[in-house]
């Protein structure tokens, strides 16, 4: 039965979710703001903090205005409806309490993408509490996988660097790669979201990640070794903008996700091998 209205079905995560759960989704077209089922999965979003340099309105228009158009088309009398919103670990911002917990009130997002994602969360909660509508908010760790066609230094930097390594190019790392990050494979993300929609509590924020603090430098060295690459690691200083919007160490506390019953199926070794193989086959 097609019972999940997916807003944003053409993006990296949205498209993969629809592929994995094709029999249960309704792909809502662009510029259509009307849900077609009781379960809504909302993924429409910008993807990084760099839009401030070219369009001050893009994050606001994409992450907030379109969201309001969808919320305005919800049947507020439908008590069976659940609004599932895909957010990001970026909303934690410059929070020194790592690993990040869902109940930590010290969210201090920096950058227009991060700020508008946090604002969207708060507006959804306010809307749903006002009209007694159920919701879930999923805060994703760094999602990587073969289907991401928009990798760059700005977005999904690890995957971009793995591609550079496969091509034998040197890689430049802030802090020499001595930063902690949480990475999760796209299939795990999609399956975790679906599992939470089927089994998870409502009116909750749920972190979705590996829950493990991976040292960025070690992942890069692993990719170089697996690819048998001649790439060299070059230590560079972070840019001013990076220091403004980014945090040095971040990973998610996934206790709540595990208590719901979901465990990630892909470890970092498997993910790196899959990405190296993918880029070797698509050079």
What is the name of the CATH architecture? 3-Layer(aba) Sandwich
Order of helix and strand elements from N to C terminus: EHEEHEHEEHEEEHEEHEHHH
Q: Total number of β-strand segments?
A: 12
CATH topology call: Rossmann fold
Strand order of the largest sheet: 2-1-3-4-5-10
Report the average pLDDT across residues: 96
Strand content: 15-25%
Figure out the total of helices: 9
- Fourth-tier CATH superfamily name: NAD(P)-binding Rossmann-like Domain
CATH class call:
Alpha Beta
* Unreliably modeled segments: none
Topology, pairings included?
Blueprint (H helix, E strand, L loop, with lengths): L3 E4 L4 H9 L4 E4 L10 E4 L15 H14 L10 E7 L23 H20 L2 E7 L1 E3 L12 H10 L4 E4 L5 E2 L1 E3 H14 L4 E5 L5 E2 H12 L5 E4 L3 H6 L9 H6 L7 H14 L2
Parallel strand pairs: 1-2, 1-3, 3-4, 4-5, 5-10, 6-9, 7-12
Antiparallel strand pairs: 8-11
List keywords for this structure.
single chain, alpha/beta, Rossmann fold, six-stranded parallel beta sheet, 9 helices, globular
Structure described in brief:
The chain is an alpha/beta fold. The protein has nine helices and twelve strands.
Structural notes for this entry:
With 283 residues, the chain is of the alpha/beta class. It has a single domain (4-281), classed as 3-Layer(aba) Sandwich (Rossmann fold), CATH 3.40.50.720. 37% of the residues lie in helices and 17% in strands. The chain has nine helices and twelve strands. The strands form four sheets. A six-stranded parallel β-sheet has the order 2-1-3-4-5-10, sandwiched between helices. The longest helix is centred in the middle third of the chain and has 20 residues, at 112-131.
């Amino acid at each position: 039965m097609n019972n999940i209205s997916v807003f944003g079905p053409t993006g990296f995560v949205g498209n993969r979710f629809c592929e994995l759960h094709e029999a249960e989704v309704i792909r809502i077209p662009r510029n259509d703001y009307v849900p077609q089922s009781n379960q809504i999965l909302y993924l429409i979003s910008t993807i990084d903090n760099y839009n401030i340099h070219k369009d001050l309105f893009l994050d606001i228009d994409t992450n907030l205005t379109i969201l309001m158009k969808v919320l305005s088309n919800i049947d507020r009398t439908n008590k069976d409806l659940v609004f599932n919103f895909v957010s990001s670990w970026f909303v934690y911002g410059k929070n020194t309490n790592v690993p990040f917990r869902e109940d930590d009130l010290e969210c201090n997002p920096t950058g227009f993408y991060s700020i508008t994602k946090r604002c969207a969360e708060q507006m959804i909660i306010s809307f749903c509490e006002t009209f007694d509508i159920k919701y879930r908010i999923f805060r994703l760790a760094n999602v990587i996988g073969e289907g991401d066609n928009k990798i760059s230094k700005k977005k999904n930097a690890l995957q971009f660097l793995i591609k550079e390594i496969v091509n034998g190019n040197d890689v430049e790392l802030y802090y020499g790669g001595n930063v902690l990050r949480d990475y999760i494979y796209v299939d795990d993300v999609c399956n975790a979201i679906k599992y939470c929609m089927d089994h998870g509590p409502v009116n909750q924020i749920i972190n979705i990640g590996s829950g493990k603090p991976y040292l960025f430098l070690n992942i890069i060295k692993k990719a170089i070794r697996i690819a048998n690459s001649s790439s060299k690691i070059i230590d560079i200083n972070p840019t001013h903008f990076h220091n403004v919007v980014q945090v040095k160490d971040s990973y998610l506390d996934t206790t709540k996700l595990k208590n719901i019953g979901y465990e990630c199926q892909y470890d970092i070794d498997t993910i790196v091998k899959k990405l190296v193989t993918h880029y070797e086959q698509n050079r």
